[in-house]
Amino acid sequence: MSAPLPAQPPASTPAPATTRSRRLALGVIATGLLMTVLDGSIVTVAMPAIQNDLGFSPAGLSWVVNAYLIAFGGLLLLAGRLGDLIGRRRMFLTGTAVFTAASVLAGAAGSPALLITARFLQGTGSAMASAVGLGILVTLFTESRERTRAIAVFSFTGAAGASIGQVLGGVLTDAVGWHWIFLINLPIGVATLLVAVRVLPADRGPGLRAGADVIGAVLVTSGVMLGIYSVVGAGTHGWLSAHTLGLGALALALLAGFFVRQATAGTPLLPLRVLRSRSVSGANLVQMLMVAALFSFQILVALYLQRVLGHGAAATGLAMLPAAAVIGAVSLGVSARLSARFGDRNVLLLGLALLIALLGLLTRLPAHGHYATDLLPLMFLAAGFGLALPALTALGMSGAGEEDAGLVSGLFNTTQQIGMATGVAVLSTLAASRTGTLLSEGSSRAEALTGGYHLAFAVGGGLLTAAFVVALTVLGRTRPGTRTRTRSGAPTRTRTRSGAPTGTGAPTRSGRPEHEAVHRTEATDAGRSA
Q: What is the mean pLDDT of residues 26-31?
């Protein structure tokens, strides 16, 4: 999972902090991010063990992931707004406490219902802490070089957490049981809280009287939940059943009500003016399609390794490590250089092309395959995600004015989580349905499971193809050299669209002074790093 972006500008400027306290605060926030990222990936290799132990149905198993993602994605905008109103430090501490307590509940779960409830609470706590974490860093590290280093640490933690999560999940599941993939958060969470209370700067917001769109948050969260539930239930009730269509229609009505609410509320979660930008709306649509396809890749490949090839949980985690490592290395070390030279849009299109090839080749996985020859070479095509996501983040942020940068970054986080939840629900349900059909026709278990995964990968490839078309036709061309930085982290001189260098305070072609362009540059770089 990529790292969340700040949902709103700081509510107030905290008192100056010492170098030591700033470093400790960075460690606290990075640790909080590590728990969130670990929890998004650590569960994937443990899902077969969870299913066998608690008796989940194949379609119901996706709710172990979906319950977390729905709460996380649905509450990010509200959590960011509440952080502005009551203070970011308070929101971070409360979110970390909720996440830690919910982790203990998940580790003690003895039934599907209790585990799903705990996962929803984990997602709630993650949204509360993640929505304000990077925003706290920005207020603490005001000098350009320090801020660049702090964001680099934050980004590295996110990239490393995804890799560590799958390996650690496999090792813990095999060694002491799947319960410990959640219980391990208890000592980490308690230590984080003890240090955070001492080192995070106190800040004040205007208070809840300034307004938080709770009605809008309820509408969007319940709409997403019902929509995902209707898709998951389609495997049992049928895609054209009254159950599926009725709940789907209700979900759409709730989401429509959310947009009506945003058009009329005095303090909306999502002012609709930001969606008028083609960069913002196009980038969010591309992200939803891309993440929907690729988060299911992470889960379904892990299931293929265990249920078809017979790998254990630890071996599955290690087998998935090359993909995670390639994504992290490319996103942190290669993507920015390519974007500076060829432009974000071209890098995004290249990344999407690699990912389309990846899912296309996964549709040819054999039922009696070998990891080294059939799957390992494909892992390196996952570099497309490391290319695509940073470029996509930069394109989405490029359409945000100075007053909307935080809001647009919060929206970007939200659509990412909705895409994850939708992709897991749709593709896992299609795979389970296809597997059942093949079993009824007399196929072996391995052949039926592989056939189900083939269908999911093919649909995922279609989603990526749609994302490629949207990126090609909706997102505008960008020229290289528009967002560069020196090694010290300070912004360098930029060029206008006409190619002429801008001077200090000189107006760009858009009519904004250069200092506003630099502000946008910093917001974009922060989003890409996260």
A: 83
Q: Are 374 and 366 in contact (CB under 8 A)?
A: yes
pLDDT for res 155: 57
Q: CA triplet 233, 238, 244: central angle to 5 degrees?
A: 55
Q: Which two tokens stand for residue 497?
A: 């669209």
Asked if 8 and 410 touch (Cβ cutoff 8 Å), the reply is yes
Cα 79 to Cα 68, 140, 284, 419, distances in angstroms:
15, 20, 20, 19
Round to whole Å and give the CA distance between 367 and 496.
54
Q: Which two tokens stand for residue 447?
A: 């052949």
Alpha-carbon torsion (25, 158, 191, 135), positive or negative: positive
pTM: 0.69
Of 279 and 521, the structure prediction assigns the larger pLDDT to 279
Tokens of 215: 């009605």
Q: For residue 207, how far is the Cα from the chain centroid? A: 29
Of 325, 341, 447, residue with least CA distance to 386? 325
Reported as a single tens digit per residue, the pLDDT across 431-461 is 888 998 999 999 999 999 999 999 999 999 9
CB atoms within 10 A of CB 263: 11
**Helical packing angle, 313-333 and 335-342, nearest 10°:** 40
Q: What is the pLDDT of residue 316?
A: 81
Give Cβ neighbours of residue 234 (< 8 Å, ≥ 6 apart).
Answer: 241, 244, 429, 433
CB atoms within 10 A of CB 188: 17
In degrees and rounded to multiples of 5, residue 311 shows phi and psi of -75, 150
Report how far residue 75's alpha carbon sits from residue 127's, in angstroms, rounded to the nearest whole number.
Answer: 6
CB atoms within 10 A of CB 202: 11
Give the contacts of 19 (CB within 8 A, at least 6 positions apart).
Answer: none
Q: Which two tokens stand for residue 512?
A: 């904004």
**How many residues does the structure list for the chain?**
530
Cβ burial of 275 (10 Å; 0-12, 13-18, 19+) is: middle
Cβ contacts of 440 within 8 Å, gap of 6 or more? none
Rounded Cα gap, residues 508 and 37, in angstroms: 39
Residue in the structure block whose two tokens are 């994504």? 327
The percent helix, strand, coil of the chain (3-state, each to 5) is 75, 0, 20
Distance CA 325, CA 292 (A): 20
Cα separation, 6 vs 34, in Å, equals 16
- The phi and psi torsions of 135 (rounded to 5 degrees) equal -60, -35
**DSSP of 202-241:** P-----GGG---HHHHHHHHHHHHHHHHHHHHHHHH-TTS
CA distance 425 to 420: 9
Average pLDDT over residues 476-499: 42
- Structure tokens of 477? 């061309």
- Residue 507 burial by Cβ neighbours in a 10 Å radius (0-12, 13-18, 19+): middle
Q: Give the residue among 255, 272, 273 at the shortest CA–CA distance from 422.
A: 255
Whole-angstrom Cα distance, residue 119 to residue 39?
Answer: 10
